[in-house]
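ingest -> validate -> predict -> emit
validate: passed (alphabet ok, no gaps, 305 aa)
predict: started
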Amino acid sequence: MGTLYIVLGIIVVVVFTSFLTVSQGSIAVITLFGKYQRVLMPGLRMKIPFFEKIYRQISVQNQSIEMEFQAITIDQANVYFKSMLLYSVMDEKEETIKKVAFKFIGNRDFMQALIRTIEGSIRSYVASQKQAEILGLRHELVDSVKNQIDNTLEMWGYHLIDLQINDITFDQAIIESMSRVVASNNLKAAAENEGQALLITKTKAAEADGNAIKIAALAEKEAAMLRGQGVALFRQEVAKGMSEAAEQMQQANLDTNVILFSMWTEAIKNFAEYGKGNTIFLDGSAEGMHKTMQQIQAMLSKDKK
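emit:
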């Protein structure tokens, strides 16, 4: 009876040790007597009890690591990087899984080799560039690193999905000098913009003043022309009216000097009405009137000619 229990116990142990569970997103690598035997996909699987062992479970999911390191440019400036690396197993083929399982003793050794490879690639690229160019070459740096290490990772059974350079910094002295350069460039640009704005303002103001002067000169010219034409027309009308009045006086056998006397009195009356309190000195003597009459006659004679 005791022997039966022992046999049943052995059977139970064998049955239970014949099954294993492979986690989702992982592939189990099985060895027999220390030698690679096969791979098992996720789920409940069977193996030879006591002889087949799980060497490693390889994760086929995406994995990420963060890295911080330093590089030196061609002009001897220290550059500090913070980056994030995203990678995964290249595929689920058996040969790929064997590379991942046996290329390195453990995951720690693989991570060390991966980080040092990427650091070396970035440092070699930075060493060929100047400090002032690094910030503008972020994408070129990432592309260069990916192109260089893709073949190496493929030999290890991995694939580089993405490399992100999250932060690039310099020594404090370099940062301060860069800030001063940016500030001086901004001041220079602001001064140039202000100078251009002032030049435009002055130019437009000068053009406006010139146009105003031109318009005023044209207006003055036209006004002077109109005033001259008005005076000429006034004289013509005066001469015409006096000629007609003189003819009528002659037809009536009257002295034409009456017309001149009437104009003299009208002028004095006009002076009194529109003088607005101003003092006007006139020679009211007979000789003064005679002299004025002679001047009017001379003016009329000139207009007739």
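Residues 2-59 form one domain.
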